[in-house]
Amino acid sequence: MSARRAILLALAVLALSAPPADARVLVIGVDGTRWDKLQTVIGEGRAPHLAGLMRRGFGQATLLDYAPPQAFTVSAVGWSTIASGVNPGKHGVVGALNMDAAQADKNGHPDFLTRIEQLAPSLRTFSATDWGNLGLHVNGGPIFSDAVDVKHATAAADTIESYDAGDQADTDAAVALLRAGGQQAGFVYLGVVDEVAHVLGSATDAYTDAIARSDRRIGELLAATAGEEWTVIVTTDHGQRDLSIGLPISHGGATGLERTSFVIAAGAGVARDPRIVRARVVDVHPTVLARVGLPGAADLDGLPFATSTRQDAAGFLGRQAASRAAALRRARRAR
């Protein structure tokens, strides 16, 4: 058996292990958020909920695996990558205008909520989004399909006020579902941070203020999970250029700031030792599936960073690190 097949088999066995009866996972996407600015807001004490997640689990910056001309660092590309667990070369969303027709199908790579519905339709899924491409049949979307059990999907106008209102509506819809109980997996989108970058620039107080407002909404979501054991993952689709003025193209290029994303995670199955975990955005999809005890497709580019039982988290992540190292060695030999 080849090393690749052995690794895939091992991951499949791990993912298929029985999850806890109450396994639940929530992914929160905060669009266009710079890691360095997030650290500033945390240092000022204005993002206590994200800081708390990082203390209970881990938080780390990660460089996107792609850049122009292969694929642009824009939202359609980023959220398609996060949702599908594969990079642009596989899902086919690569353009700069957020209009790629492949967003809905992603070359046969479904979003993680749709994958759950395909494999275990009895599990309850939900999404709450206010960027049209994510949940609506517009501009090549939806990135998250209509197979999701409950979809709160709107399209905010291109203003800070509209995204603030839309983000709060997303939060309110998700809070209602979480408080009602019975949900196994969900995705909640917050878009005002990116909109502030486009309108005013990311090197502004308004941008860090928007991060603080998003943290407050994340706090509302976390409070709604009280009494149930949830694995919570927070990520972003891309960074921003360091601008003190607003530009429609505040990101999309190949600079380090634009390519820097992050993954923050805490809860059941997440090891608290950040030295073990080396999470990338493509790891979100397989992690969601692993948490609810379902297998990822064989051609995913990501690996789970949380296992389906808390007890074996450290050992699982050690194996994850070994698998990642083996994959990197193969990639180097192939060059």
Order of helices and strands: HEHHEHHHEHEHEHHEHEHH
Strand content: 5-15%
Please write the CATH class name. Alpha Beta
Low-confidence stretches: 4-19, 309-317
Shape: globular
Structural class: alpha/beta
Description:
By secondary structure, this protein is α/β, with parallel strands linked by helices. The chain has one domain (3-334): Alkaline Phosphatase, subunit A, CATH 3.40.720.10. Helix content is 42%, strand content 12%. The chain has 13 helices and 7 strands. The protein has helices at residues 3-16, 35-43, 48-56, 75-84, 88-91, 112-119, 132-135, 160-180, 192-200, 205-224, 256-259, 284-291, 313-334, and strands spanning 25-30, 58-63, 125-129, 150-153, 185-190, 231-235, 260-266. The chain has a 7-stranded mixed β-sheet, sandwiched between helices. Strand 3 (125-129), helix 7 (132-135) and strand 4 form a beta-alpha-beta unit. Helix 8 runs parallel beside helix 10 and helix 9 (192-200) packs antiparallel against helix 10. The longest helix is centred in the last third of the chain and has 22 residues, at 313-334. It is globular. The relative contact order is 0.21. Mean pLDDT is 89; it is low at 4-19 and 309-317.
For this entry, give a set of tags.
single chain, alpha/beta, 335 residues, 42% helix, Alkaline Phosphatase, subunit A, seven-stranded mixed beta sheet
Structure in a nutshell:
This protein has 335 residues and is an alpha/beta fold. Helices cover 42% and strands 12% of the residues.
